[in-house]
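For concreteness, we quote verbatim a single protein encoded this way:
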Amino acid sequence: MHLPTGPSGPSDKSRTIALVLAFFLGVFGAHRFYAGKTGTAVLMLVTLGGLGIWWLYDLILVAAGGFRDDEGRLVSDWEPPPGQGDQTTLPAELLEELEELRAEVADLSDRVDFAERLLAKPREDVPRG
């Protein structure tokens, strides 16, 4: 359940994602980058989370539901909003490019295997001595 925080309502950012980012990468400002607050995120990155104090403050703020995005809306919803991350189809052009890249990588892998086998064979035609 979320409460409206103004005319635009709650943020479309996930509180779960913000909390995980704040916990693991908070000293680098990852949760602020996620919320669109790039200016303060860079400052947090440079100061390593205000030497940990700013990071701890933001961690508590996100967990308590008081953290706001770049538009001033509360990041209060635990689940990502509907419509985000559920796009499972890729454009046909992208799929074709991906298939071409897979074929090229497979071809390169075969060539590397062949070269390794050639290099592993002892040379018999070289006189030793």
In short: The mean pLDDT is 83. Residues 93 and 119 are 39 Å apart (CA to CA).
